[in-house]
Design brief:
By secondary structure, this protein is an alpha/beta fold. The chain is built from 13 helices and 11 strands. The protein has 2 domains: 245 residues, Aldolase class I (TIM Barrel, Alpha-Beta Barrel), CATH 3.20.20.70; 79 residues, no CATH class. The strands form 2 sheets. It has an 8-stranded parallel beta barrel, surrounded by 7 helices. Strands 7-11-10 form a 3-stranded antiparallel beta sheet, with no helix packed on it. Strand 1, helix 2 and strand 2 form a beta-alpha-beta unit. Helix 3 packs parallel to helix 4 and helix 10 packs antiparallel against helix 11. The radius of gyration is 21 Å and the shape is globular. It binds flavin mononucleotide. The site of flavin mononucleotide has 27 residues, from strand 9. Keywords: Dioxygenase, Flavoprotein, FMN, Oxidoreductase. GO terms for molecular function: dioxygenase activity; nitronate monooxygenase activity. InterPro entries: Aldolase_TIM (IPR013785), NMO (IPR004136). Pfam families: NMO.
């Protein structure tokens, strides 16, 4: 026998609920130029033309992961995305890229409307270059002081990303970052990211003052995502507790914190560090050589998992929201679900439907 449907689920959100959601998202929607203030966070190898265009076509805002691309490759990816959508989308660039100014110029020449700088505080020159060229600049703010500094440097919007997120992470949860930053920063729109898997959570952050939300993990299993079927299957099977930060064995040899699903690769990484430490202690490796050996372990590992489907030894970067990924769905269906959940929650809270 099927479980009885809870009474509130029998009432879909009325139009007033969507109007209320529109009002809460107004600033983010205007900033992005999208139907919904929902960004598809750039994910290396996953966020390419197909997923980015699908998200933008579905009313969200796709972002190309340009981090590992050289200028000619980025130019090609932007053009291919523009061929698939006439809606706005962004390009995510890694601030440490040696050819950062060239990559910014590629975006500007292609009339990309929004540039997202990730992977550290961007040099002021890069922000100026992007803005002078007519693009809107989005930066990641890992703390309130840095949020203020980024706004002074010209950031048009900020993303605060909690440690629940997939990929490279900071130490603080979105729950705390949101309380520290949202009440303080009103000058620019602030988007929240990390661990978001349902519309009710998006609504809660909008009510706290967020302009919108950025999600990554939830979009990996979009039908349009080119991630390998084995990569998608690992996401569908995983629970929140499987997405853990990378382990560091010795503080003298820092490991960049990355949240990923545990597999043979993450287990071997611990053994690899132990072996490198043994060789360092035995005088077989200098400190610098040992650090490089540790850093090189994951080189190319995300591509191996996403593109080649090596889910045993590749990197399965995933956020804690992975437990809420239960099947493959079109980008439009995922967006529809998130928006529907948020509208339903508004309707319940404001007494538009019976509880
Ligand atoms: C597989 C994967 C790859 C990612 N790659 C990048 C990246 O290249 N650049 C970046 O700024 N963020 C990257 N992220 C972070 C996302 O853009 C986004 O902020 C994050 O996924 C949000 O948290 P969530 O996964 O809990 O939704 C990645 C995330 C995942 C899951």
């Amino acid at each position: 026998m099927n479980a009885p449907v809870p009474p509130h689920r029998q009432f879909p959100a009325p139009p007033e609920a969507f109007a209320a959601l529109d009002a809460l998202m107004a600033r983010g929607r205007a900033f992005l130029g999208a139907r919904w203030a929902l960004m598809g966070g750039a994910m290396s190898w996953v966020s390419e033309r197909n997923l980015v265009a699908a998200l933008s076509n579905a009313g969200a805002f796709g972002v190309i992961a340009g981090g590992s691309m050289e200028p000619a490759r980025l130019e090609e990816e932007i053009a291919a995305t523009q061929a698939l959508t006439d809606k706005p989308f962004g390009v995510n660039l890694i601030t440490l890229h040696p050819r950062l100014p060239e990559l910014v110029r590629v975006c500007l020449a292609a009339k990309v409307s929004h540039i997202v700088f990730a992977g550290g505080i961007p040099p002021g020159g890069a922000i100026r270059l992007a803005r002078d060229g007519g693009a809107r600049v989005i930066c990641f703010a890992p703390a309130l002081v840095l949020a203020r500094r980024l706004i002074r440097s010209g950031a048009d919007a900020l993303v605060i990303e909690g440690s629940e997120a997939g990929g490279h992470i900071g130490p603080v949860s979105l729950n705390v970052l949101a309380q520290e930053i949202l009440p303080e920063i009103r000058e620019v729109p602030v988007f929240v990211a990390g661990g978001i898997g349902r519309g009710e959570a998006i609504l809660a952050y909008l009510e706290m003052g967020a302009a919108g939300a950025q999600l990554g993990t939830r979009f990996v299993c979009a039908t349009e995502s080119i991630a390998h079927p084995r990569f998608k299957r690992a996401f569908i099977r995983a629970a929140a507790r499987d997405a853990l930060p990378s382990v560091q064995l010795d503080p003298r040899f820092p490991v960049i914190p990355v949240r990923a699903l545990q597999n043979e690769g993450t287990r071997r990484f611990v053994e690899h560090q132990a072996e490198v430490l043994r060789r360092f202690r035995a005088g077989e490796l200098t400190k610098e050589a040992a650090q490089l050996e540790i850093e090189h372990f994951w080189a190319g590992a995300l591509r191996r998992a996403v593109i080649e489907g090596d889910v045993e030894h590749g990197s399965l970067m995933a956020g804690q929201s992975v437990g809420m990924v239960t099947r493959e769905q079109s980008a439009a269906a995922i967006i529809g679900e998130l928006v529907g959940q948020a509208a339903h929650a508004v309707a319940l809270r404001r007494g538009m439907i019976p509880t």
